[in-house]
Amino acid sequence: MKKMKTFAKIGEIKTEIKRQRAEGKSIGFVPTMGFLHEGHLSLVRESLRKTDCTVVSLFVNPTQFGPQEDFEDYPRDLERDADILEKEGVDVVFVPDQNEMYPQGYKTYVEVQDLQDKLCGSSRPGHFKGVCTVVLKLFQIVDPDTAFFGQKDAQQALILKRMIRDLNLSVDIDVLPIVREVDGLALSSRNVYLNAEERKAALCLIKGLKQAEQMIKKGERKSSQIIQTIQQIINSEPMARMDYVEVVDLDNLDPLDKIEREALIALAVYVGKIRLIDNMIVILEE
Amino acid sequence: MKKMKTFAKIGEIKTEIKRQRAEGKSIGFVPTMGFLHEGHLSLVRESLRKTDCTVVSLFVNPTQFGPQEDFEDYPRDLERDADILEKEGVDVVFVPDQNEMYPQGYKTYVEVQDLQDKLCGSSRPGHFKGVCTVVLKLFQIVDPDTAFFGQKDAQQALILKRMIRDLNLSVDIDVLPIVREVDGLALSSRNVYLNAEERKAALCLIKGLKQAEQMIKKGERKSSQIIQTIQQIINSEPMARMDYVEVVDLDNLDPLDKIEREALIALAVYVGKIRLIDNMIVILEE
After folding, report:
1. Is B106 on the interface with A (CB under 8 A)?
2. Domains identified in chain A and CATH numbers
3. What is the ipTM of this complex?
C-alpha cells in the first residue's frame, strides 16, 4: 500500500503539490467535510482513475453553516476517514483546522449572486457564500486539474461551475451520480443521526422522486402536478416536514411551469430534526 | 526590439502563459485601466527588472465604477498604450473587451468586508468589490508570481493584500511609491481632465500632505490637529471640495486618535468634477 501524506498546514501542502506538478503529475481533488460514505468514495475512486495524484480535504467548513444550524453537531471522525482514504490509495489528505483556514481578521468572501438565493439558499441564507469561499480557497491551495463533486448537492455543483466560469479558474469539475442505499435513500453524512423510525420515514424523499418519474414517463409535464404529488407523499409521512420541492431549469434554477426538454426536480425535507435533500434530473427523449 | 504579444481572449492568453511557465519563466503582472502614465511605467519597469515575462492588462473595469461615476468618460487610448508598452519591452499585453470579462449571465463577486467600506469605500460603494473581482479574475488568467500596484491607491493595495492572504492565492504583491509631477501632483489618468485652473488647484492635496509632514516633524501627533490643518488648506482652495481626510491604521484602516508608530494619511478631493486621491505613509523613528 502506498504511503498517504497528510498535511494540516497550507504552506506545506502547497509545497507538496508544487513538487507533484513539477514531476508532471495531474492533480485530482475531492473536497469533503469528512465522515466519509460511499458517495464520497465514488468521487475518490473516479479521481484515482482519472488523475495521477488524488488530494482529499477533510474540513467541516464553519462559514457554510447558519447560526441555528448543526455545525457543532456535524459528525466527525478524522481517524476513521484517514484510514478509509489510505486504503483507497489516496495520495494526499488535507486536514486544516479552523484557524488555518480562517485566521484572525479573515474578511474575504465569494458569492454567486441569484443562484445562491434559490432552493436550499432560501432556507439556508449565506450557505452558498460559505461554500464558494471555502472551495475557492481550497482550489487555490490544491491547484487541481479536476475537482469531483456529487450530484446530490445539485445546486452546489451548479453554483461552483458558475463560479469557475465567472472567475476564469483553471479547473474542471466532474459531477458524479447520487449514491444510494439499497432502499433508495441518498447517502449523506447526516443520515447517521436518523433513528430507526426516522430512517424509515426518510424514504419519503425517494418515494416522491420515483412517483414523479412515473408520472413523467406516463406523459405528465406540468410542474404543479408533479410538485403536488411529491408534496402529498411527504405530507403523508408524519415524521417528515417539507422544506421545499421545486421543478427548475438545469442552468439557472428558475422554476419551470412545465418540463419541455430537461429539468431538475429538487427537494429538501426535515425528518425529525435532520434536514435531508435529494434530487433527480429529468431529460426527455424526443 | 522584441516582439510584444497582444491577446484579447482569455483562452489564448492562458495558453501563452502556460507556454512561458513550461519554459521555467517567472511571470510579472501589472493590471491597469490603461491611459498609461509614468506611475504605471514605474510598475512595468519593476516587473521587467524582477521577472522573466511581464504581462500588462489594459481594461477599464465597469464593475468598479458606480452608476453616477465616470466609466463612460474614463480616458482610453489603447493604441498609444500598446506603443508605450512595446517600447518598454513588455512581453504580453492583455486587452479583453467587457463581454470577454463579464459574459452574459455573469454572477460572481469577491469582497473584503469592512476594509471595503472605509475611506474611498464610503463615497464609492461597491468600488472595491469590483476591484477585488476583476483582480482575482486577472490573477486566475495571468497566474503571476508577482503583481505590481501603486501606493497611490493605498486602500486598494491593502485590500488586495488581504484578499490574497485570505484566499490563499499564490501571488506576491509589490507596492511601489507614488510617482508625482515635478510640482508634486500625484500622477493619475484622470489628471488629463483638469483644465489649467483646476490643475493648479489640484496642488492643494500635496500641499496638505506636505504641511502635515512638517507638523509631524515638529512633534504633532494628534490626528485631529493634522486633519484640521489639511482641511483648512483644501477649503482655502475655491475650486476644491473635500471628500475625506483621515489618519488611519496601516493594517486595518481604522481611524487613529494619534500617531504612535506609523499611520496612513489619506485624502480624496473633488477639483471641479474630478475626484483626486493622494496619501502619505508616516513612520516615526524611535
Report:
1. yes
2. 5-176 (3.40.50.620), 189-280 (3.30.1300.10)
3. 0.95
